[in-house]
Structures are given as structure tokens and as C-alpha cells.
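Subject: Sanity check before I submit

Could someone independently write out the C-alpha cells for this chain? I want to compare against mine line by line before I put it in a report. The sequence has 350 residues.
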Amino acid sequence: MNLRKGLSLHGLLLNIAGALLVLAGIGLVAMTARGLLNYRAAASRHGGEMIDLDANAQPQAGQHGYMARIVGTPNVVEAPHDPEFNLQVNTPVLVRHVEMFQWREIRIGDSVHYELDWVDRPLDSSHFEDPRGHANPVSFPISGKQFDAGLVQLGGFKLGPVMLHALPGSEQIAPDPKSLPENLAASFTLYQDYLVTSAHPGDPRLGDLRVSWDEVPLQQLTIVGRISGDRIVAAAEAADGKGYYVQLGDVPLLDMFPDLPVPPEFVLIRQILAVLLAALGALLLLVAQRDQRDVLLALGLGAMVVGAVASMLWLGGDTRMLCGWLTVTLLGLGIAIWRLRRGSIRPKQS
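---
Independent answer below. Compare away.
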């Protein structure tokens, strides 16, 4: 009598432990899937799922379409060139500024007065309240322009035009008057990092020109953009209306996108562990119900149960993940049928 009670209690404990382990496997795979789905839903607002790449990363198969975070200093492979002034600078973007010494109309309350100043666009003096004696030249003989580098790379990836123009910072550079073409060398002289046409640079006159250049400095950046072949470009269809981010320094992904939940780590290990937990639970249930220790049958049942739950969670989500879990489910089902047909379950012997 006591022996039967002991065996009955042992079977009950095995059933409870087995059921808990199966539920633990299902719960683990469900938590992992839910964490990934929540992360991907939030990431899709910024262009899609994101991967971290180091500064020496090279384009790899399977990366196309992903958003990537890369930290490093851009490398200018083909520097921009200002052909009119024969100026070439090792920078991603070179900007030429042209100013003319012109009359400006200044209004303070009801009073109007005029002063000469450097202005980067033609001022139409015909609209002045008192144009007499304050006539400005009609146009600039030379205009301001922006010159982009032919090729800028971060790691093994080329930066697309949008990313190039998003690079932060601006520093004025001093031009070299010795490199000027002959026609401009006769007109311009160097004065305080500017090229000026003034006969007396410290005392400019109406119509004098002042030309300067700004460069985007090379510095450590964190760039997030979409991988398109060997290029990093903006994700034009991103719900946030931007699809890329550029910040100075090494900025963590969650600092750039505070709305992103923390994605689950060790996803593959967690998924394998979920199947093994369910399989161990199934094995305990087999021992309790039929006194059978068929490990393969238990593994098939565990894979089938966990795979079926995961497949339902990934319906309408990641097609690759869905197909993977359907494959696991079918493999588990196949193993279970095979073992059952081999007569692996036998009635308990009394």
C-alpha cells in the first residue's frame, strides 16, 4: 500500500515537473519573440531593424536593407576641388562663401540709416527708401558654391549624398594664394584667411569682394543609415520622416533612439533552450504516464510544441523567422510520428 502511494506521488511530481518545464519552454520562446517583435516595431519607425558595425566593417552578404550603426572617422578618398580657385581640401564637403562690400539699409523705429558691410548676397538698392548715394552693384561676378567629395567612406561603406550633407561641423580654412590661377592671382590677395579684391584690405570699398572657404572637419562620428550594397544611405520611407542619424562621438543606439526597447540578447541560445526545456518536460511526462524514456520522442514533442507556439507569434511578422519555426514544428512532428510508429510507447507494466 505504501509502495503504491509512493509510486503515485512520484508520478504526480513527475507530471507537475514535466508540465512546468513544457510551460517554461513555451514561455521563454514567447518572451523572446515578443521582445523581438516589439523592438522591430519600434525600429521600423526609424527605417528598420538595426545592426551594430565597427569602424573597419566591410559590406557582407545578408546585410542589404538593414539599418546600421557605425562609429568611426570618415575617410576622404576623392577630395573636393574648387576649380575656379584651384583649391583642393581633404574634407567631405567644401563650401565657398562670396561676400561683397555693399550698402545696407537699417531701420530702427522710424529712423533709417545706411552703412557699408560685407553681405553674402546682392542687395537691391533700388528698393531703399533713399537710394541716392547708396547704389549697390547689380550682381556678384563670382558666386558661392558647395563642392562634395567624390568618395567618402566609413569603414568599407561609401556615404551617400544625404549622409554626406548631414555631417556636422564647419571650420574656416586659409586658402593658398600661390595656387590661384593667373587671372585671379592678379585680383585677389590673402587677408585674415580671406581672399579679397580690396586694394587696401583693411579699408574695403563699395563693390570689393571677399572669398572664404569652410570645410567639414574629419572627426569621430556615429552614423545610422540603411545599407544599400556598399553604401550607407537614408531610409527615405521611414515613419520618422528622416531615416538616418549623425551625431558626434561614440553614441549608443538607445541614446540616439530613446523610444527603442532593449532587444533580447542571445536570441538563438534562448530559442534552443526553449526547445530543450520543453523536450525535458515531455520526457518527464512520458516517464510519468508510460514509464518510457524515449529521448528522441521527447525532443520531437518539445520541438513541435515550441515551434507551433513560435510560428503563431511570428504570423504576419518576419517571414524568415516564421519559416524557420514552421520547419522546427514539422521536424518535431515528423520525429514524433516516426517514434510512435516504431512502437516507442508501451503500456505501463503493473
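---
OP: Matches mine. For the report I'm noting this point. Residues 2-44 form the longest helix (43 residues).
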